[in-house]
Specification:
308 residues; Mitochondrial carrier fold; 11 helices; globular
């Protein structure tokens, strides 16, 4: 449903507006087409990754086993931007194509919900669709993250050097270091973020917009709030993912899988070590969520007329 689509409030015979009628009405809205999801997702990915890249660099350096200052401190905060830019558009595009396509399928064929159950008010639909989307998007996102984070922490100076060296040392598998952990982090994140985002938009439409669909900036605010909450809860998984992608600790000893990484992080700094970088992570996702979801909703709005 595009941001420009008007949802007219339904009134019963008593002349009063009933919020549940809005939910029933939104069920009739058709899912957006694949090409619109592709274009909107690409715009979302590029807008957030490029605009807020320095904050992401600082977060990665805070989580590095070598420490913030040895990893570069505040110097060269745009290192790795070329890797991020090359993967952000296709990664986000693949996510939203999968997400928008999976929602109606999961709603009807897996959860067996009929027309009386609104697609917009079904948390399970959003949870499962977002999980499927994250699994697909990580096929692009993880190689991008591996190269980007090695460059952010001073491992490589150029994208070409990073690509050739990682492949020479580890083969193609080297680009998927931490894939399982990344998926394990992203799925809980999306389980939390997307149902809240979708629900906040419905509540905003009901209680603030008098039944009118949310505008792009309003959807962006909802994305900021839901993303910040999810970011704080899943920070420990993000720390573990970062360490696995960097492969070694401060002494150069390689991590031997997820359990070994968790054990050594705990020895290194206790429970607090799992929340290193939580402030820039929450800040990045809060502000980034506004750009990300704002760009997504706005692009959907701009392309809505082509399907009418």
């Amino acid at each position: 449903m595009s941001g420009s689509t008007s949802i007219q409030p339904h009134r019963s015979s008593d002349g009063h507006f009933h919020p549940e009628s809005l939910l029933q009405h939104t069920q009739s809205a058709q899912p957006i087409s694949v090409w619109r999801a592709l274009l909107s997702g690409a715009a979302a990915g590029v807008s957030v990754d490029i605009s807020l890249y320095p904050i992401d660099t600082l977060k990665t350096r805070l989580q590095s086993p070598h420490g913030f200052w040895k990893s570069g401190g505040f110097r060269g905060v745009y290192k790795g931007l070329s890797a991020a830019a090359s993967g952000s558009a296709p990664g986000a595009a693949l996510f939203f194509v999968t997400y928008e396509s999976a929602k109606p399928f999961i709603h009807s064929h897996i959860l067996h919900r009929d027309a009386s159950h609104s697609l917009d008010s079904s948390p399970l639909t959003h949870m499962f669709a977002a999980s499927a989307a994250e699994t697909m998007a990580c096929l692009i996102r993880v190689p991008t993250e591996v190269v980007k984070q090695r460059m952010q922490t001073g491992g490589y100076d150029t994208l070409r050097h990073a690509l050739t060296d990682i492949r020479a040392k580890y083969g193609l598998r080297g680009f998927y270091a931490g894939y399982g952990t990344t998926v394990a982090r992203e799925i809980p994140f999306s389980f939390i973020q997307f149902p809240i985002w979708e629900r906040l938009k419905v509540l905003w439409a009901q209680r603030i917009n008098d039944g009118e669909a949310v505008l792009p900036w309003q959807g962006a605010v909802c994305g900021s709030m839901s993303g910040a909450f999810a970011a704080a809860v899943t920070c420990p998984l993000d720390v573990i993912k970062t360490r696995l992608m960097l492969r070694t600790d401060a002494q150069g000893v390689e991590y031997q899988g997820f359990a070994d990484c968790v054990r050594r992080i705990h020895i290194e700094g206790g429970k607090g070590a799992f929340f290193k970088g939580v402030v820039p992570r929450v800040s990045w996702i809060f502000v980034g969520g506004f750009f990300f979801f704002g760009a997504y909703e706005k692009t959907k709005q701009l392309t809505a007329d082509s399907e009418m």
